[in-house]
Amino acid sequence: MSLIYDLPFREGKGNQTKEAIRGNILPIHYVFNHAKYKASCSPNWVESPVSGYAVDFDGYSTYIKDQPLEVNGSFSISAFLAPRCFEACHGDVPTTIIDQINQSSQQGFALSIFRHGEVQFELGDGRNIYRFRTDRQLELLTKSFLTVSYNQEELSVTIYINGKKELESTNIKYFRPADIALSIGLNNHPFEISEVFKGGMFAGLIDFIKVYDHALTDKDIQKEYDKIRDKRSVPLEDIDLDEQKLLDDVHRPQYHAIPPQHWMNEPHAPFYYKGKYHLFYQKNASGPYFSHLHWGHWTSDDLVFWENEKTALFPQKGELSPSGVWSGSATIGPNNKPYLFYTFANFNKKYNQGVAIARPENVEDPHLVDWKMEPQGAIYQTDQQGIPSQFRDPFVWKDETEEKWYLIIGGGVKDKGPTVWIYTSTDCEHWDFKGELFSVDSSLYPYLGTNWELPVLLPVRDQQGQVKYAFIFMSFFDDESKYEVDTYYYLGEFDKQKVQFIPDTIEPELMDYGRFKFSGPSGFVDPVTNKTIVFSILQGDREEQEEYEAGWAHHAGLPIELFLENQELRIQPLENLASLREELLIHESNKSIEEANHKVKNIQDKMLEIMIEFEETENLVGLELKKDPANQEKTKLLFDKANDRVWLDRTESRKDKEGDIQGGSLKLDEGFKAHIFIDHSAMECYLNQKKMISSRASPVSSNSDYLSIVGNTDIRIKSIKIFRLQSIWKQKEMSD
Fold first, then answer.
1. From-to residues of CATH 2.60.120.200 in the chain
2. What is the spatial distance between Cα 274 and Cα 576, in angstroms, rounded to a whole number?
3. Over 90: is that where the pLDDT of 92 sits?
4. pTM (predicted TM-score)
5. pLDDT at residue 735 is higher than 60
6. Which residue in 77, 108, 138, 672 is a FRET match for 518, CA 20 to 30 A apart?
7. Mean pLDDT of 193-199
8. Which CATH number fits domain 579-725: 1.10.8.60, 2.60.120.560, 3.40.630.10, 3.90.25.10?
9. Whole-angstrom Cα distance, residue 549 to residue 546?
10. Are strands 518-525 and 532-538 parallel, antiparallel or unpaired?
11. Of the candidates 174, 179, 203, the residue with the CA atom closest to the CA atom of residue 60
12. CA–CA gap between residue 429 and residue 531 (Å, rounded)
């Protein structure tokens, strides 16, 4: 009896490893072995106190293939590993550790992790595949020692977690091996999420995998576990996704809040606590695609320089949130304690969304790293609240004058229209339903969607202290529509007695002319400055294959301040962003366009802040941005006062891809003023504090980072300032 397969990962570097028994040199498949948008590099290797090193499997591209392993009769598998997240949201798709099962012939074996950390073992006898699954879940971010043994004489299967027997079954008649490739980290029959991404891939660290040609005994397993029982803890920086990995990506923003790697959706739930701003976001720790909704977490001292924190909320086993934790909100509740309100999701139910609460484990920790999720929901959708499964994204705030909290949540009523409901509470625990805050008739305004996501109600003030409310929401279509999802706002009044929003206008306005690049609104009134601040996601617009190759998708937009002027909403980038300025490149005033272009012609950088004011003119003015020296690629921001129009022309942004033109109305009784932030592929344009255009430009040429000013030669530039900005992420020396 002996060891027949041993993957000890002793190399510590590179993109291949040696299996110790058969001696096969095995390639470790990894997207950045031959990177497209950054320097190539190997997977992360992390020092292991047990086997030398552990390999970091990124959850979507890292896997190993080996020749079929001959297994006959009894055998055992042991593995030492630490999962970073679980495959919670794809139903019965297990996350593969080692797989040599042939589903067609129903032969072979596979050891994997089920939805929320249950250990799963499968055996095929040629007629059936037997499936065994523990009730006990593995711990996230901590190493576990798994052992499974098959005893042919007793026709029994036993599963152990950390030396303890968790499952024993004799419900098997025979085992028949499969003659197909052995797979590590990737299911031999993967779940196709799309044409590009596959589900069921392991995310986390694997220290070793061993296969024995006999059934290990309880004593054998306990003896092996005793050797490593005190080596299970993993420093968070070793297992969390490495934020350094993508810092050299030519398109990835450097001064925007962005996850370390992979996919994100809307930032939400901002609040201030013990000197720290907190902001959360929808996160998939398995790959750069939409799925597995967790809550990622950033903290900041100033809303500009952000720090990645440990993932705050995970999908949970049970009835409440097995299918994901979706967007929500936060507030400082009674006794000055923070509360998170998240959308729970259970796709097994008809009314499968609602609101649940999480509280910090340690209120003395200003970073609030660990959170406890309550097992029961706080608010459930009723059959009187519209379309099932369209009831989400709570937004919570505290009344300014009394100990009272408000919660609104988005949805829609079929044959009526999108609707937001409102609740109140005096303790943040128990919520009283108060009816509809606001709704619209979708037969009159079909472009506003069948239901609303991410409703936000925020006060906005002018310098005289007058207050109105901005009701911001994202349209959503529960069925096929010719209209597009986008983010809108109404200005109006909040009637606290009737708990209703009364808009000033019948129809809303777009928050941003970028057509869905700015989306996922959230916000709060900063208790430090009393400013009304809105956060958003700046959506990417690349193909899935490009996001696979990049290893990231989307990031937060820059925080913006809303205020009131002449009873209209005004928008400007947060003043704190000035701390990003690294160098003033030019500062000129009263120049002709020719003179100004001479000043800017040598400016080339991927991180710029541009502030320009044109004199008032009826002629077309603007800028060409992200421009290459040969003038083959450029993105144009243009303003036409004669027609009251402003737009961003992306038809030449990228020479290998067709672009679009995004814009809208802008009426001015002054010269055109643009405040522009460029951060690699991200572009945010704030226009006379009245409108904004958020967009993207990902040119092919590596030097498409120049700019020029557009306009007739007789037009003068009243002022122009350009700053080079700095990254908010500190680059460390990388080693392969």
1. 3-238
2. 19
3. no
4. 0.96
5. no
6. 672
7. 92
8. 2.60.120.560
9. 5
10. antiparallel
11. 203
12. 28
In whole angstroms, give the CA distance from residue 412 to residue 402.
30
| 388-397 confidence digits (pLDDT tens) | 999 999 999 9
Count other C-beta atoms under 10 Å from residue 221's C-beta.
22
pLDDT of residue 733: 54
Q: What is the pLDDT of residue 649?
A: 98
**Chain region(s) in the chain for CATH 2.60.120.560:** 579-725
Return the CATH class of domain 3-238: mainly beta
Where do we find the tokens 């390639």?
27
Q: What is the mean pLDDT of residues 532-543?
A: 96
Q: What is the pLDDT of residues 325-351, one digit of tens each?
A: 999 999 999 999 999 999 999 988 998
Tell me the one-letter amino acid at 670: E
Which tokens belong to 69?
């392993």
Helix H or strand E encompassing 549: helix 544-550
Residues whose CB is less than 8 angstroms from the CB of residue 733 and which lie 6 or more positions away in sequence, other chains included:
none
For CATH 2.115.10.20, the residue range(s) in the chain are 262-380
Q: Can you tell me the mean pLDDT for 225-254?
A: 96
Q: What is the CA radius of gyration of the chain?
A: 28
Contact of 331 with 587, CB cutoff 8 Å: no
Measured CA to CA, the distance from residue 56 to residue 58 in angstroms comes to: 6
Tell me yes or no: is domain 262-380 CATH 2.40.440.10.
Answer: no
Answer whether residue 374 shows pLDDT above 50. Answer: yes
Q: d(Cα 142, Cα 139) in Å, to the nearest integer?
A: 6
